[in-house]
Amino acid sequence: MDNESKKQEMIEKMKQRKKEGKVVRRIVGVVTLVVLLLVGIVGVSGYFYVKSALQPIDPESTTEIPVEIPMGSGISSISTILEEQGVIKNARIFKYYTKFKNESSFQAGNYTMSQAMTFDEIIESLKTGKVYREPIFTVTVPEGLTLVQISEIIGKNTEFTAEQFMEKIVDPQFIDKMVGEFPDLFTDEIKDGSIRYALEGYLFPATYPFYEKNPSLEEIITTMIAQTNTMVVEYKPLLEEKQMTVHDLLTFASLLEEEATAQTDRETIASVFYNRLEIDMPLQTDPTVLYALGSHKDRVLYEDLEVDNPYNTYVIQGLPPGPIANAGKISIDAALSPTDTEYLYFLADAEGNNHFAKTYDEHLQNIDKFLR
After folding, report:
1. Which end of the chain is more exposed for a tag (fewer CB within 10 A), N or C?
2. How many Cβ atoms are within 10 Å of 259's Cβ, its own excluded?
3. Domain shared by 118 and 172, yes or no
4. Which residues make up the annotated site Important for catalytic activity (predicted)?
5. How confident is the model at residue 24, as a pLDDT?
6. Do 307 and 212 share a structural domain?
7. Are residues 115 and 165 in the same domain?
8. Cα 32 to chain center, whole Å?
9. Between the CA of residue 253 and those of 325, 326, 331, what are the distances in Å?
10. β-pair type (109-113, 206-210)
11. Is the dihedral of CA 299, 305, 307, 311 positive or negative?
12. Residue 185 and residue 215 in one domain
């Protein structure tokens, strides 16, 4: 082979190598791009998966999930239990989250959790031994309110109107349902025809947290009644000992709640009422007159005291047919633990201080001294 042929052959080989190099580089480029895309997809997917796993499974869920954390459980076993019970999506992510937040000292016990709880709420629960959730909104019902007044609070704090609340609260089917659900709380006394509202006094004063955006009106009312039921259960033995019904207790306590002032002595006022009941003396408490009239007045007139109404304790003997407001725990306690006195009269001065008397003459002297 002459030199020219060898040169030509060399040139052809160089062209071939150059061509192969281009193919190789193209293949490498494609493979690299594919790898980068796969890494990107995995990274993005991983990011969204982790982000999703950090969120509650179902923020709107109200279903309660029982969770038992055994003694000696570490974060690994706790995370696994939470995933198995469906409270969280991924045990490993929860475990890493708690370590990142430097959280520890979790308590064993039986919990009631839900898929709406955040990681922070779950951690707070496990640290305190209590179920902790941030409510979407709360409704505060103060002591001493009537159902009509509570309806106004519901109207301002929920999607329901005051009128809708009152319609539900007097619905015979709803009342029967409540009686069936809370047999230890309700008796046939609430069906007395002279009672204005069967459920008056049975919605406990408290701040109620709600964990869903739009709970039903029935759920809102039932929650308040359930709280009254919870409170009353602890008094059952004492009520049986005193031969007193729950209805009488809430009725009596509502009178104390309405007579109360900022500095009042409810136990002593309770003793006045009990002393009067013992000698068949009318209770003669002004709040019952106002309830009978169905309107608020700054001053009760003598003509008001004569209104013919089963709630007017100036014209009836004993307790009114039912509560005239919702009583708080302090008033309920006072109704069951009155001071031992011989007082039959009391009045509150302009500063809210109470003055008690054993006789009517002493009471008149207190009127002259503190009210004139």
Report:
1. C
2. 23
3. no
4. 259
5. 47
6. yes
7. no
8. 58
9. 9, 8, 5
10. unpaired
11. positive
12. yes
The structure tokens 């306690």 sit at 333
Q: Is 77 exposed, middle or buried (0-12, 13-18, 19+ CB in 10 A)?
A: middle
Same domain (yes/no): 20, 69: no
- The answer on 264 and 155 residing in a single domain is yes
Token duo for residue 51: 């982000």
- Among the candidates 9, 28, 53, a domain finishes at 53
Tally of CA atoms within 13 A in the half-sphere of 235 that contains its CB: 24
Read off the pLDDT of residues 248-278 as tens digits, 9 standing for 90 and up.
Answer: 999 999 999 999 876 678 999 999 999 999 9
**d(Cα 344, Cα 279) in Å, to the nearest integer?**
10
Range(s) of the domain holding residue 26 = 1-53
pLDDT of 222 > 70? The answer is yes
Query: Which of 267, 277, 285 lies closest to 332 in space, CA to CA?
Result: 267
Residues 90 and 123 in one domain: yes
How do residues 52-78 score in pLDDT, each as one tens digit? 667 888 887 778 888 888 877 888 889
Position 197 pLDDT exceeds 50: yes
8 A C-beta contact, residue 335 and residue 249: yes
Q: How far apart are CA 312 and CA 327, in angstroms?
A: 19
| Full-model pTM | 0.70
Residue 271 to residues 258, 278, 281, 334: CA-CA distances in angstroms?
A: 16, 10, 13, 9
**DSSP one-letter code for 107:** P
Residue 81 lies in a domain: yes
**Enclosing H/E stretch for 209:** strand 206-210
Q: What are 19-42's pLDDT values in tens digits?
A: 655 654 565 455 555 555 555 544
Q: Which CATH number belongs to the domain containing residue 79 in this structure?
A: 3.30.1490.480
Residue type present at position 220: I
The residues, ordered by sequence, that sit 6+ positions from 208 with a Cβ below 8 Å of its Cβ are: 138, 139, 140, 141, 220, 223, 224, 227
Is 87 inside any structural domain? yes
pLDDT band at residue 128 under the 50/70/90 scheme: confident
Residue 278 lies in a domain: yes
How many angstroms from the chain centroid is the CA of residue 109?
22
Last residue of a domain, one of 94, 128, 162: 128
Number of domains making up the chain: 3
DSSP character string of 19-77: HHHHHHHHHHHHHHHHHHHHHHHHHHHHHHHHHHHTS-S-TT----EEEEE-TT--HHH
